[in-house]
């Protein structure tokens, strides 16, 4: 199948005002958005837009419209950032729903030309308040390198214990047998938070879906639990609480550009 699984690990390290580091195992799915519908029909434990042990829903990513294919949104946003022709191939790397529940702090989109060259990367960032934002990187249709470095101003409120006066530095590799992303959040030029995700490819089969359920039980629950557990610990240690900025309170969805480094 064109789609596959990644078994791996997420790491977060905060440097100030209090320091911590934690790691936890996760699995994600790399979805060929044009092939997944037919692929899911061949699988017992993964469905598209239907309840199952694992599932993927149009309403969870992109424009998040339950009856609209991801391709519609992707073509529109790439055109807005200079890629007028639809990408030849597009992939989404995300945490699938587990027993109907999902939360993706970060999902990644990769678009390719007919020569299988990477032409766009989109970071889909979500917070626990039901809002999401896309950081978009393109070269107006020109190929990106397989190892991408980019930066962006922080314009989306994620953690209530992080100020908005910050910027991100991103490191991406073209998804292959190994998957790796790194995000460095800096404030006044100083490191504030580093986040990484790594994974090793596994075939998308019924056997490996069951293996994922056993090896990474309650994958989504774990992500949500870790976010709130560390938020509680930061609060108990006296971390400053930052409310959602007033100009962002009513903005459910937005997008801005990343720039290459």
Structure summary:
The chain is built from four helices and 15 strands. It has 261 residues and is an alpha+beta fold.
Describe the structure.
The chain is an alpha+beta fold and 261 residues long. The protein contains 4 helices and 15 strands. The chain has helices at residues 36-40, 70-80, 206-215, 219-236, and strands spanning 4-14, 20-32, 46-48, 54-56, 89-94, 97-98, 106-112, 118-126, 132-138, 147-153, 167-173, 178-187, 190-203, 253-257, 259-260. The strands form 2 sheets. The chain has a 12-stranded mixed β-sheet with strand order 14-9-8-7-5-2-1-13-12-11-10-15. Strand 11 (167-173) and strand 12 (178-187) form a beta hairpin. The radius of gyration is 18 Å and the shape is globular. The two termini are 34 Å apart. The mean pLDDT is 90.
How much strand content do the residues show? 35-45%
- Average pLDDT confidence is 90
Total beta strands: 15
Distance between the termini: 34 Å
Order of helices and strands: EEHEEHEEEEEEEEEHHEE
Helix content: 10-25%
Low-confidence stretches: none
Structural class: alpha+beta
Number of helices: 4
Largest sheet: 12 strands, mixed
What is Rg? 18 Å
Shape summary: globular
Strands ordered across the widest β-sheet: 14-9-8-7-5-2-1-13-12-11-10-15
What is the topological layout?
Blueprint: E1 4-14, E2 20-32, H1 36-40, E3 46-48, E4 54-56, H2 70-80, E5 89-94, E6 97-98, E7 106-112, E8 118-126, E9 132-138, E10 147-153, E11 167-173, E12 178-187, E13 190-203, H3 206-215, H4 219-236, E14 253-257, E15 259-260
Parallel strand pairs: 3-4, 9-14
Antiparallel strand pairs: 1-2, 1-13, 2-5, 4-6, 5-7, 7-8, 8-9, 10-11, 10-15, 11-12, 12-13
